[in-house]
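From the methods appendix. Each design record in this collection lists the tokenized structure first, followed by the designed amino acid sequence. Records were kept in a plain field format so they could be parsed without special tools. The example shown here is representative of the layout used throughout.

RECORD:
FOLD TOKENS (214 positions):
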């Protein structure tokens, strides 16, 4: 589990802005969705090129959150990344730009529909009543990349709890865009995984200051 810490000066800044450390004293389960981002073999299996070693350590926490939310009438949404051969050209500013062409192809091919990397990790407690939603960019709430926002709003959901991996990439991107789509945002610090504690804590600090609750 990550060693979680938000610096004292950031905590003081949060208190100055809203008068209390946390936004929510309690959540209404029927209006809340647990959004689990990219807990796929490509990111959880240590043999994969895009693996996040810490991801295996948050599986039990995600399962407990999912069970608690279901028990109280909430929604659980499993969001997974799906790429295709065209992703390399459709998103060339990232794949082949930010990432090298060789590494890009390894990452993208592991997330083709039907590949081993594309499948959700086998230890996740997924129920038939849960949502399963595909995305083709970092954010699960980016218009045109995923229809999760529409599905949740249609169900009367106004609050999302973000978990999954990578904390500072797809999870943070999803949290930021969820706020833009007028959801109340919570990030579970012990339900997210990054490559380092520093990456994880920087992301949590950014969310806590401006985009939601941690």
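DESIGN:
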């Amino acid at each position: 589990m990550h060693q979680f810490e938000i610096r004292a000066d950031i905590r003081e800044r949060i208190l100055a802005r809203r008068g209390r450390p946390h936004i929510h004293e309690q959540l209404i389960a029927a209006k809340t969705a647990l959004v689990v981002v990219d807990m796929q073999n490509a990111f959880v299996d240590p043999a994969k090129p895009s693996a996040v070693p810490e991801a295996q350590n948050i599986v039990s926490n995600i399962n407990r959150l999912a069970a608690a939310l279901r028990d109280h009438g909430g929604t659980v949404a499993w969001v997974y990344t799906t790429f295709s051969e065209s992703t390399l050209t459709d998103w060339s500013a990232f794949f082949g730009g930010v990432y090298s062409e060789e590494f890009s192809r390894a990452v993208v091919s592991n997330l083709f529909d039907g590949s081993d990397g594309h499948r959700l990790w086998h230890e996740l407690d997924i129920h038939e009543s849960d949502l399963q939603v595909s995305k083709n960019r970092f954010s699960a709430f980016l218009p045109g990349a995923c229809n999760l926002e529409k599905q949740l709003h249609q169900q009367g959901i106004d609050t999302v709890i973000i978990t999954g991996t990578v904390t500072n990439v797809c999870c943070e991107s999803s949290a930021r865009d969820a706020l833009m789509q007028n959801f109340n945002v919570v990030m579970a610090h012990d339900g997210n995984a990054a490559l380092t504690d520093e990456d994880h804590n920087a992301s949590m600090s950014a969310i806590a200051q401006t985009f939601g609750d941690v």
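APPENDIX NOTE: Helices lie at 8-18, 41-44, 59-71, 87-90, 101-109, 148-154, 167-180, 197-211.
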